[in-house]
Amino acid sequence: MQRLLLDRLLSWKSQSKRKPVLLDGARQTGKSFLLEKLFGEYFEQVIRLDFLEQPSLANLFNGSLKPEDILENIEIELNLSIDITNSLIIFDEIGECQQAINSLKFFSEQIPEIFICASGSNIGLLGSFPVGKVELMELYPLTFEEFLWASNQKPLIKAFDNINLGKTAHDKLFSLLIDYYFVGGMPEAVYEWFETKGDFGIIERTQRVSQIHSSLIAGYKRDFGKYSNKVSAHQIEEVFENIPIQLSLNIDDSVKRFKFKDVLEKKTRYQELSGPINWLEKCRLLSKCHPIDCEPHSPLAAFSKNNIFKLFFFDVGILGHMLNLSYKEHRTQGFNYKGYIAENFVQNELAAQFGAPSYSWEYARSEIEFLFKGINGDIIPVEVKSGKRTRAKSLQIYRERYKPLKTVKLIGSTGSIENKEALVIPLYYSSKIEKLINT
Question: Is the CB of residue 411 less than 8 Å from the CB of residue 424?
Answer without folding.
Answer: yes
